[in-house]
Amino acid sequence: MSQVQEQVVYVVDDDQGMLDSTVWLLESVGLKALPFTNGRAFLDACDPARPACVLLDVRMPGMGGLNVQEELRARGLDLPVIFVSGHADVPIVVRAFKSGACDFIEKPCNEQLLLDSVQQALRRQSERLARQAGTAALRARLDSLTPRERDVLLPLVQGYTSREIAEQLAISVKTVELYRARVMKRMQAERLSDLVGMACVAGLIDPLDPRGTQSAQAPQTQPA
Asked: Dihedral, CA atoms, 44, 49, 52, 58, nearest 10 degrees?
């Protein structure tokens, strides 16, 4: 079983003094901080599966902070970016936020403001990763269903009775009940309402209109 990884704050700043003081500040409140003096080294070390955020200087030799941010997006690395810079002119700030930055703090920065921003970014990132993990687990359970089990799942979460499902599929009510029990077990659902919630999260049904157009998005099934 995989263990939950420790949160980390990547600190990227070519000013060694600023880098050291920021790392000390973060570690003083129990956060793990990884320092980098250039953007390329940070990008090479970045772990996309780890709950993290990045404190990023704007002006650095070679690869500036805005270019690092763009490279993160190009690589599909959805990390919260907090810019820390002594050069907070309007065009730079606007560009940073348009590219998805979650905060922009001017140097010299207020320590508590910086810590609050980091904690908020880490919390959002952890919540996002947890949602992704839950969605992946749900998709895996859906993929484990047999074609006939999927045939029963969709009308079941759309609110049809076992008799109505039996008529739709031209099978007996007893057989529908058998497949229903299998679906509940495979999906790890204790109640039908749990199963309906899973179907909504997976996009199989529209919670406001379970028998409407969204049902057309259900996975295609093959005859049993």
From this structure: 40
